[in-house]
Amino acid sequence: MDVTLEILIVALVALVALVGVGAGLFVSRGRKELPPPEVLDEITTETIEHPEHPEPHLASEDEEPPFEEVPADEKAAPTTTIERPEAPGGRLARLRARLSRSNSSLGKGLLALIGREKLDDDVWEEIEDTLLAADVGVQPTQDLVESLRTRLRVEGVADPERARQVLRDELVAAVGPELDRTLHTVGDDGKPGVVLVVGVNGTGKTTTVGRLARVLVAEDRSVLLGAADTFRAAAADQLQTWGERVGVPTVRGPEGGDPASVGFDAVKQGIADGVDVVLVDTAGRLHTKAGLMDELGKVKRVIEKQAPVTEVLLVIDATTGQNGMTQAKIFSEVVDVSGVVLTKLDGTAKGGIVIGVQRTLGVPVKFVGLGEGADDLAPFDPAEFVDALLS
Questions:
Q1: How far apart are CA 7 and CA 30, in angstroms?
Q2: Which domain does 135 fall in, by range?
Q3: φ and ψ of 191, to 5 deg
Q4: Which of 83, 263, 286, 374 is deepest in the core (most CB within 10 A)?
Q5: Are residues 256 and 375 part of one domain?
Q6: What is the phi/psi pair of residue 39, to 5°?
Q7: pLDDT (tens digit, 9 = 90+) per residue, 6-62?
Q8: What is the CATH number of the domain that holds 152?
Q9: Is residue 234 helix, strand or coil?
């Protein structure tokens, strides 16, 4: 019994010793040895708090953060789509078709008269009346009739198709195919070209400027708009909307402000931004108001302190007829008009105004507007225009 008790005591003591050794090993493994004091002094620690996570941010700087899918309702709204305008060359056929379907009596009336078997004085008088009614103008009409009579008398044209060809040739010659219809948009010394757009109230100047910006953007030109029509509250907004649709910026001033100052700032900004062309819209003004016309001259002079104006476009409503001629002469005297834009040329019998206004001003029609669409402005082509009238 005593022997047995001794054996139990010895076994118990051995078990306790083994448990103690294991615990010691466990504790020693979970504890790190502190470095010597002289090394410890050289160690610094830095804790980077993440704004959304209070625990230290331990990721490496080279490690990319995990991808997190953004919920659909939290994604940003899509930006406004920038439109790509139709190329100017592609507009001609469409505009020609529209003009040929219009109510113009110029081509139809002339074809009906010139195709008669006998061209007596009465017929020639009707031809002259038709040209005058179409706003060709007195002197251009007389010149055209005289040229037609001479050719048909000398050539003895009896074939209606040949007579039509002669009429076409004479009309094209009257429109002036030799005139330079290039839009001058290249400035000097690396400065942008500056196009000043003028005209009376209601001719569609602001719309023309917006459409012209689209023509230039379609040709891969960089453009800046100047909203120098400060008298109409909606004019600058309208112009800015046109620009935003094709990614073109607009410089504007306070309502009722100095339009010359806006033009000056627009050209200055265009130079700083290195754009190709600055288009400056001006307020519509009656050609009979001397004060307003003088102010228009001031706008041009102030702009040219920054860069030369390379083009002055006069916008004329084709339906105004001879009144448009009077406007043209006065505007030309004030700001040296270098080109004409004819708006609302479709649906009118006044197609002859192309010939009349060019003869009056001695400058070419460079663009025509045919319709209400954003791209319904096209470079004017004499042959295309005459063919559309006679089709």
A1: 36
A2: 93-175
A3: -80, 155
A4: 263
A5: yes
A6: -75, -40
A7: 665 655 555 555 545 444 444 444 444 444 544 444 444 443 333 333 333 333 333
A8: 1.20.120.140
A9: helix
